[in-house]
Amino acid sequence: MKFSIKTNNVENVLLVDGITRTGKFLLAKIVSEFEDIEFFQSLPALEHIPYMFGLGGMSRDTAISLIKSTIDYAAYDQFLGRGLNHRVLDRSSIYNSSDSASYLKRQFENLESNDILRLMRSNSKSFFFVTHNILANIDIFLDAYPRLKMIYIVRNPVDLVYSWNRKEYGKVNSKDFLTMSPDIEKNGYSVPWYYSNWSDEYKKLGEIDLIVKSIKTILALTAKKILSLSDIEKRKIHIIRYEDLVTNPLNELKKVEVFLGKSINCQVKDILLKEGLPNKGIVNKQEEKSKFIFDLTSEKYTKILKNMERDYLNGDDYCGLSIL
Predict the structure, then answer these.
(1) Which pLDDT score, from 0 to 100, does residue 65 have?
(2) 291: which strand partners?
(3) Domain for residue 135, yes or no?
(4) I need a surface site. Which of 168, 207, 221, 260 has the fewest CB within 10 A?
(5) Is there a cis peptide before residue 249, judged by omega within 30 degrees of 0?
(6) What is the pLDDT of residue 324?
(7) Which of 143, 131, 142, 153 is nearest to 15 (CA)?
(8) Which residues, in sequence order, are CB contacts of 113 under 8 Å at separation 6+?
(9) pLDDT the model gives residue 282
């Protein structure tokens, strides 16, 4: 059965994407303060569909139909004030928006469906979502939304390994029921999608080694995908470094302003102040993190991680993996 690919109700989709623990939600809170950008949403289906399609788990028409439907419902509900995240402690909480009052007010407005559709189809309005690892399977999103723009955030790989370890992401076949993403089955193990081309090595790796291999794999898949894109498609992606964002945010946001063609809201400085930015000292803990990680890493994966960090510090956003 073939699913119909409908005309877009939403044309301008903006994504902030990156590996887990790169600072996406911090970046998204700030970018939400740009003019004509709706406050960001986090919808897990938008990050599951691309890799399920990429691994052959669904057809192109099914994937595009699901992505468009998910975004249409999200945009429609947002204009009605439905589904707003009211949990104050979450980064995606509506109370993190400087314009939270107007979003809350929507719950009491009686807009007609046609009025909402006109707002959704506005050429000036961008609908904003935070995702994980979509860039490695970006093709289906580019097919669905020709005007798509993505800000991809990267971070020192040692920081990522340290943070993943604190979250215990190196446990294979975890029984953690909070791990709700669709996994793949590999030799009786339930594992993340990016294990798909691995041998059985992961069964024998220590937790830190497994994390290093995971991050290396995701970055390599992402770099390979970037190389496969046309020049026009590459211009739809803007890469930002976490370290630059936290130490010199206004400089980085000016670049984002040019990329998006949208002005920075005057409220953005209040958001930066609230987040404690700029923070020059945030990168000073690198030596401490490195010592902790390398004491737990095997000789093979210590070498891999040190090479990745060296390449990253020398300016390669993909840690030397762009040739893979």
Answers:
(1) 97
(2) none
(3) yes
(4) 168
(5) no
(6) 43
(7) 131
(8) none
(9) 77
β-pair partners for 190: 185
**Is 68 within a domain?**
yes
Alpha-carbon span 318 to 190, nearest angstrom: 27
Q: Is residue 321 assigned to a domain? A: no
Residues of the chain with pLDDT under 50: 175-178, 323-324
What is the per-residue pLDDT for 318? 87
pLDDT at 124: 87
Torsion, Cα of 97, 270, 159, 133 (10° steps): 30
Structure tokens at 215: 């991050």
User: Are residues 82 and 57 in contact, defined by beta-carbon separation less than 8 angstroms?
Assistant: no
Write down the pLDDT at residue 177: 44
Q: Is residue 215 part of a domain?
A: yes
- pTM (two decimals): 0.95
Q: Which of 154, 149, 153 is nearest to 260 (CA)?
A: 149
Residue span of the structural domain in which 245 resides: 13-313
User: What pLDDT, on the 0 to 100 scale, is given for residue 179?
Assistant: 64
Tally of domains within the chain? 1
Instruction: Confirm if 38 and 74 have CB atoms less than 8 A apart.
Output: no
